[in-house]
Amino acid sequence: MTLKIVVGILGVPILLFGASLTIFKPLRYGQRLRRRLTFFDPKDIDVKNLLDSPSAYVESDAIDSKHDVDIEQTHDVKQQAQSHPRLKLPPPSSEGKGLIPSSLDYLADLSDEYTKENPEVPFFWHVAKSGGSTIKDMYSNCYGLVEASESGVTEGHENDAALQVVTLEHGWKFLNVDTTIPTGIERAARMDTVQSGMLDLLVSPLPYEAVPKLFSNEHKARFFSVFRDPIERVVSIFYYLQKAKHEPTYNPALATMTLEEYVFSDLAESNFVSRCLIDKMEAAFVEEDFLVASEILKTKVLIGLLDEMEESVRRFDSYFEFDKPKNAACVKGYLKTGSNRHSHPGIPPSDSPVYKELLRKNHMDVRLYKYAVELFREQASMFSD
Predict the structure, then answer these.
(1) Residues 228 and 218 sit within 8 Å (Cβ to Cβ)
(2) How far apart are CA 89 and CA 68, in angstroms?
(3) What is the pLDDT of residues 295-338, one digit of tens each?
């Protein structure tokens, strides 16, 4: 079996299931980088136990159920926060902060006061098919923010000698760097992108590349992201890549596969979000891995949820003190229709073999998502009047 990480949707790497993997750079840059890694196939996981006790998603005997949360309760969040928030800082991070990898030292803590005058840059972690395109496009189009992503290197701007703002169609503004791939991040670092003072928002799927290379103690990143139910996200990616011939990750084999064939194949995703968050793309998960991932979320990440996109954007606006959008109808349009959205069949029934296999292959992501939902509810207290 093989496991592949392919840099795909807007530069977002895709994790595919198996026993070894190959990593590719985006095809538009013409070169390929390969390395072999091992991966654990958790065949011994009791799927019934996962369904009955969703917090027990770990490839070890150590089980921690303290992060169980009813996802349905998130729909009450809007009643917990006022429409005109005033930011309240969370308490200082716990002793568990020592678990966070040193590569993320330049991510500011949520407990540290933030104002627009701080030399810090909002960093949006773009996870594929989780509303990231909507966030990126909305803040560019509706708010007029200058962003760094992959959009600024179109039309030959990846060869520019100096950092500059590139104005695209409709007046969207991007810096002429690509922060979605390793080589682009290295170039952005050489051009002092973060230190330039020209940047309003950085977008990248690669925190372990971007944070240590682009940021510093004097210019830290403020981390935020939007999370989606992992089973829904994997199903969405499958149907998207069946037709997205423009994506470097497009595989014609997927076009003729059923969801069931995909899920039981070597091509299916496995715990992609968790592995990216803790930078562990190989080997089995242990309980400490969940503790590391949950501590990163708790200490460093302003949480958004795809199922609560309007409330998430309200919090992002308040926390980062973004100016009011140029056109309120513009924001409502993105929240209603999204960007890069595609219609497809829903997820399979929870008692079906396909769903159980999806759960087995993404057990840690499901557990982490439940904790993100819990944090989303807790962070509402930061924005109450």
Answers:
(1) no
(2) 24
(3) 999 999 999 999 999 999 999 999 999 999 988 899 999 988 87
pLDDT above 50 for 143: yes
Distance CA 151, CA 154 (A): 6
pTM higher than 0.85: no
Between strands 121-125 and 201-204, the pairing is: parallel
Report the Cα 281 to chain-centroid distance in Å: 15
**Residue 106 contacts by C-beta under 8 Å, 6 or more apart in sequence?**
211, 212, 215, 216, 217, 219, 220, 221
Rg (CA), the chain: 20
- Cβ atoms 364, 271 nearer than 8 A: yes
β-bridge pairing 301-305 and 221-227: parallel
Residue 324 burial by Cβ neighbours in a 10 Å radius (0-12, 13-18, 19+): exposed
Can you list the positions of beta strands (E) in the chain?
Answer: 3-7, 13-15, 21-24, 121-125, 146-149, 165-167, 173-178, 201-204, 221-227, 301-305
CA atoms within 13 A on the CB side of 243: 8
* Cα gap 361→47, rounded to integer Å: 10
User: Rounded CA gap, 233 and 129, in Å?
Assistant: 6
Give the number of other Cβ atoms within 10 Å of residue 256's Cβ: 8
